[in-house]
Write a structure and sequence with these properties.
Elements (H helix, E strand, L loop, with lengths): L1 H25 L3 H9 L1
């Protein structure tokens, strides 16, 4: 089913983005994140 394949692809893409985002967060000092949130 194309619909299921598309949904699976989207879920995989989101998961990959989340893992990449968390990895990116882990590589940045918290004070810089706080500064970004404050701005």
């Amino acid at each position: 089913m194309p619909e299921k394949a598309i949904a699976t692809g989207k879920a995989t893409g989101v998961a990959a983005w989340v893992f990449g985002f968390l990895d990116w967060l882990g590589s940045i000092p918290l004070d810089k994140i706080t500064a970004l949130l404050v701005c």
